[in-house]
Amino acid sequence: MWRFVRAKEYQRGFDLTAVAVDSKEDCNSFREAISSHVQLQLGLNPETDEKELLEEIDSHYPLELSRV
Known about the structure:
With 68 residues, this protein is an all-alpha fold. The protein has helices at residues 2-6, 23-42, 50-60, 63-66. It contains four helices and no strands.
């Protein structure tokens, strides 16, 4: 315990390269990942099947997360 208390952050397992993410940026990244996954699973074309894509996303994820 004595050594752990006196150890540097990186020695205790902290990731010193990690940075805080803007919540809007995080939601946008999540939406892009989900959209890509749904497109791949259902074989949808985002240009021609946009309405169906949005309906599928909305059926599985809350509107707050899917429409940012």
